[in-house]
Amino acid sequence: MKLARVGFNNHDRLAIIVGRDRAIYVDDLVPNISRATLEAGAMHTLSNLDLTTREIVSIEGARMGSPIERPTKIVCVGLNYLAHAIESGADVPKEPILFMKSADTLQGPDDPILIPPNSTATDYEVELAIVIGQKATYLQTDEDALSAIAGYAISQDVSERYWQIERGGQWTKGKSFPTFNPLGPYLVTPDEFNPDNASLTCTINGEVRQNSNTADMIFGVIELVRYISNVMQLSPGDVINTGTPQGVGIGFKPPKYLAPGDLVETGIDGLGSQTARVQETHV
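Above: the chain's sequence. Below: its structure in token form.
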């Protein structure tokens, strides 16, 4: 099942995607995918829905919103691809490196990415996102970790490297600017996506910068959910950004950072794609 927030005339509606530019609205049953609706059984309601009784509509030209509304938190994993750790000159982590990102960064997959004022080091990072479907605390087994996952989505973990690295070395500073987490276009349920073998790409103005596979992850999806649940409570609707592969802008010599006017295209096989234009922030 592919869930999306489909928008026309500044009004988003929850829908199940059933084909190219075709969907079935389900917001009369579940208004959105959020902590509240997930706790109320949204995924059970939608998975048991008889779609043959509902109208299929065209969504061509619609704006796609973030499939998740107002998550409690966004948890990020650093240096989780082997080639990226090597590219960064860092030791291969023995345990997941975790940091937080402001939940206010979340936006639609094709919305503009805004470069912070005076920034010359804004970077791109294609990532696989896990969306949590139920409360998860102190999980011990793979089965429990898998059952806590509502689905997967594409995340673009935009980063400002000067604030991340030069201003005290606290990664959250460089990750939490407005617009820095396009998510979507879909939330894809676990029965339709294999997170252990999926191709990831990110191109800038048509130039392929990142081209990898989740098989290069040091810590896999299930291991991350289990691990993170043992250091914090995971709540329905929470997003976990699982790390980025090699090819980020800071890895080039000289670095290839984003500039106003750049076109960022982000894709993961089975999860769709994003297309976002980079703009300046005007204050």
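The two ends are 41 Å apart (CA to CA).
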